[in-house]
Amino acid sequence: MKYRITHITTYHYAHEVGLCQNEARLQPRDFPRQQCSDSRFDINPEPSDFQERLDFFGNRIAYFAIQKPHSKLTVTAVSEVEVLTESNQVFQDNTISWEDARDKLSANPAQQAQSQLTTGHGSYEALLEARQYTLDSPMVTSGTELGDYARQSFAPGAPLIDAVTDLMERIYQDFTYDPSFTTIATPLADVMRHRRGVCQDFAHLAIGCLRSLGLAARYISGYIETLPAPGTERLVGADASHAWFAVFVPGSGWLELDPTNNKLPADQHITLAWGRDYADVTPLKGIAFGGGRHSLSVSVDVLRLES
């Protein structure tokens, strides 16, 4: 499936900003399930400095600085991307228990290096890379409450894939999608207590549950195609950013799951970036000197293209 994504972010400042420096993670990344053929920025006012690089996790970052007074900043990112329908057969055939997966992730690195798992997603390198996602991160801290919630899905000896799928389904059933309840800074404990949140919260919740059991889970930011109801026209700019998570399955790789929609992402999920949690993949962040109070508006349009 091919898409054109237009992501427009606009800041209005009460007073002029004299200088701002920003980082944008708004360019879809390339990996086996997805290929980005074109990505460009339109920034107004025009930046005095613009550079691109990859971060620690392999995400694409655009850095830009504006050194002229301005009371409005508009950042438009336009990308064209093809998302492939990835076969989940490699995961369906993997029956590793969640305890075995946990033990492989926690095994002594020297023992892993000497094991027979030398290639693919079961290799020492893949396990070592995944281990960083078992640790606490700035916005996700493992704990007893999360572990207790997770264990309702993780019975002794249960296949990892079956258990994490059940966890996804339970989050979908137990929690209410409520965009008015949380902000970026809402603690995960509040989400657990009130059983409310948005896609970011549900992804963090699942990640915290898995890490509390010693498993590796990472946060994914991106978009999801939304289709209009039958008989209605598609609204341009009505789409939004989305978030989901992935669990590492030794021998098969990273299995993505979307607890907000209770489904395995396929060709309607477009990936921007991944990391330990939202703090690693914030779409646009920076510092501004001056400006005072400001307002922010975001418009996202995910347009399916003819093949």
TrEMBL record:
Record-linked InterPro entries: Bac_transglu_N, Papain-like_cys_pep_sf, Transglutaminase-like
Coiled coil segments of this chain: none
Origin superkingdom: Bacteria
Sequence ranges assigned to domain Transglutaminase-like in this UniProt record: 191-261
Gene3D superfamilies: 3.10.620.30
SUPFAM superfamilies: Cysteine proteinases (SSF54001)
PANTHER family reported in the protein's UniProt record: BLR2979 PROTEIN, BLR5614 PROTEIN-RELATED
Name this polypeptide is given: Transglutaminase-like domain-containing protein
